[in-house]
Amino acid sequence: MTNLKNIDQKVNGSEYVLRISTPYCNLKCDYCRKEIFDIKSIDNNELIDIIRTSVECGIKKVRWTGGEPTITPNYVDLVKKTREIGIEKQMLSTNGTILYRIAEELKDAGINRVNISLDTLNKSNFLKITGKNMLHKVLQSLDVAVNLFELVKINRVLEKSNLDETIQLIELAEKYQTKKMPLVIRFIELVKGGFEGDIKYVNGNYCAGEEVIRIVKDKYGNLSETKIEGDNPMCYYYKINSNGVVLGIVPNFSVNFQCGGKKCKKLRVNPVGFISNCSIYQEFGHNLKGTTYKEKLEVMKHLIIEKQERGEEIFKRLKHHQSDYQFWRFGKPTGNE
Ligand code: SAM
Asked: Which positions ≥6 away from 313 have C-beta within 8 Å?
């Protein structure tokens, strides 16, 4: 590990979220994953040590993503342990194929908010996109989740092929309006997934977030800008005035992959224990696998201070180039391992 200067000053990372990618996924979505890498992921004990260092630095929130967190061995225990060592809020991004079975356990263990991926409501499109016939399980998870968690959002990767399902999805959210916690829908603009052929994939399937707004306005009339506390700063939320449904657009492409700058609160850990204070760039990061607790703590402090002190100038230069996604999500081997 790079030798870092000892940091004696007190570190206050309370504004940050530790974003953890688990290594495996049970789906093979068109836009996300094309191969499985032979990696040696960090085990749950080492991951807990990393989380513990973040707690020592004041971090209170963890986001589980991946890969698919719910297929991680002993995942419920991992969530429970994470709460026991001092993390106060845990958010889960999931494909929803398993969630319905363990949602209650996860809630009891410490998960507060859930994002569920739902790219289509059409059974055969679901099979085409994900490679699995599991739409009914995702819908079941959604139904269970809205009755349990503090907030549930649907993540839909926007593509030409699902644009005409926009109203159907808004109607689904309308159906849940009466529940304790309404369902929020986020439309995420398609980006390159970092695999061979991704440019061709994006060029053939990309659709701008504006298209969703146009369709929704045509059907429901005016929207008002709104906010969701603690959310991705690059997601823009709107409330449909006539029915109260909230939708968000993550306009990756339309804003040229702009960096969130000071508004970005992410520190990111990948499946092989690489950590960075930028959600995409590796050059700010360090490999923690096999390091001592003291070394992990030193890196954590260093990353937090460096992120806090980073000037606005550097953000203007940063663009989220997406070729690193396979590294962040699945631990694809690179020179940094
Ligand atoms: N398996 C979990 C899930 O489904 O949420 C967590 C990991 S998944 C990579 C996180 C989110 O990234 C999902 O909503 C997924 O649809 C989105 N995503 C993956 N590849 C993408 C791409 N090429 N463009 C836009 N969004 C993408």
From this structure: none
pLDDT for res 256: 62
Q: Is the C-beta atom of 188 inside 6 A of ligand 1?
A: yes
Q: Is there a domain that residue 145 lies in?
A: yes
What is the per-residue pLDDT across 38-50, written as a single tens digit (0 to 9) for each? 899 999 999 999 9
- Domains in the chain, number: 1
CA within 13 Å, CB half, 203? 4
Residue 163 lies in a domain: yes
* pTM for the full predicted model: 0.95
Ligand 1: which of 32, 159, 190, 232 to mutate, judged by most atoms within 8 Å of the beta carbon? 32
Assess if residue 233 is contained within a domain: yes
Task: Answer whether residue 241 is part of any domain.
Answer: yes
Distance 325 CA to ligand 1 centre (A): 10
How far apart are the CA of 97 and the centre of ligand 1, in A? 14
